[in-house]
Amino acid sequence: MIASGQEQNAAKDGLVSMTERIMLGIESSCDDTSIAILKGQQLLGQFAAVQHIHSKYGGVVPEFASRAHQVHIVPVLEGALKEAGCSLRQIDGIAYTRGPGLHGSLLVGSAFARSLAWSLGVPMYPVHHMRAHVVAHWMADAAPNPSQPMMALTVSGGHTQLLEVRSPTDMHVIGTTMDDAAGEAFDKVAKMLGLPYPGGPEVDRLAALGNPEAFSFTAPKMEGHNFSFSGVKTSVLRVLEKTLATGVELSETMIQDVCASVQATIVSILVSKLEAAALERGLKAIAIQGGVSANSGLRQAVQELGEQHGWDVHIPPFRYCTDNGAMIALSGQYAAVESKEGRLDEAPLARWPMT
Ligand code: KG4
Ligand code: ZN
């Protein structure tokens, strides 16, 4: 299916809804295997398999992750097709995560994508995972669709990025983390507290039961638009070591208070950087995306920040926060409109800087 001039112009404004193109998106960059099918910007079906094997190791074990993708990918495709009520013959294009991510995990999705594209005789579209998190705001059911430039904050397990976003295909990173990513900080603190992996959702759940002012954790000073979270992590470790040194076990209340206090610290770092960047660039819209955008404290604080300044606020529905096939398929829709087809001999890129 070739993009018309009208379709190309509309895509520049972030609209592909009038297209009838059916795109299949495959996400396998880390530990979630997720496949979605879209018609234009509309989600027809999405199916995912979450890997529980990593919880006993307190983090993703790359070798296990790629093996689990291998096991899950065909049933996940079947699940997505069933949800969407469509057959492989109706698919017009295959989008897949080319990078960045874990090499073995990317290889499984990428090899599967090219086999499907080759056997169906349809084009294949390589997608940048970090760009795709931002593109998720243009899903038809992620209303209201962004219609003006926004300051967007990507917070995931591997990345923390501030971006000036003009459209789904025009975005520039203006700040990043100097050490841990925001999700990594949540996961590491959770591990110290003996909570299962991934720790972010656990910290979020327990934070709701604790006192956010019980502990004062260090929020490091970082100039400009960059972030640092390693100081927060060390500060939590010191408090825990001090308590354990007295021979006292960590009580349930103390764990809840640590979760509430660390969440409040991380959220306040993220929100103050987002606010400063939006003010500096004179933007009237803000957005969050990536796994940590599912955090209830962050969602509420960003909503309040928008209300305080009268800015538009874009927060994805939960199904588009953590890694998902829909954001990959939608990125494929924009790539198709721009005729950015991939080649069958392209290798995945574990590291892929955003240009
Ligand atoms: O975007 P994502 O699914 O994968 C990457 O691209 O990394 O993000 C996963 C990260 C993990 O660190 C996980 O702990 C965190 O998102 N996360 C959360 C919550 N849900 C997921 N962190 C805090 N609160 C949550 N509710
Ligand atoms: Zn991600």
Describe this structure in words.
The protein has 355 residues and is of the alpha/beta class. It folds into two domains: 5-137 and 322-337, Nucleotidyltransferase, domain 5 (2-Layer Sandwich), CATH 3.30.420.40; 148-315, Nucleotidyltransferase, domain 5 (2-Layer Sandwich). It is built from ten helices and ten strands. Strands 3-2-1-4-5 form a five-stranded mixed sheet, with helices on both faces. It has a five-stranded mixed sheet with strand order 8-7-6-9-10, with helices on both faces. A hairpin with a 2-residue loop joins strand 2 and strand 3 (42-50). It is globular. The two termini are 27 Å apart. The model has no long low-confidence stretch (mean pLDDT 93). Bound molecules: 5'-O-[(R)-(carboxyoxy)(hydroxy)phosphoryl]adenosine and zinc ion. The site of 5'-O-[(R)-(carboxyoxy)(hydroxy)phosphoryl]adenosine has 19 residues, from helix 5 and helix 6.
CATH architecture group name of the largest domain: 2-Layer Sandwich
Instruction: Please report the total strand number as a whole number.
Output: 10
According to CATH, the fold-level topology of the largest domain is: Nucleotidyltransferase, domain 5
What is the CATH class of the largest domain?
Alpha Beta
Amino- and carboxy-terminal Cα gap = 27 Å
Associated small molecules? 5'-O-[(R)-(carboxyoxy)(hydroxy)phosphoryl]adenosine, zinc ion
Shape, principal axes of CA atoms = globular
Q: Helical proportion? A: 40-55%
Radius of gyration: 21 Å
Assembly state (oligomeric): single chain
Structural class: alpha/beta
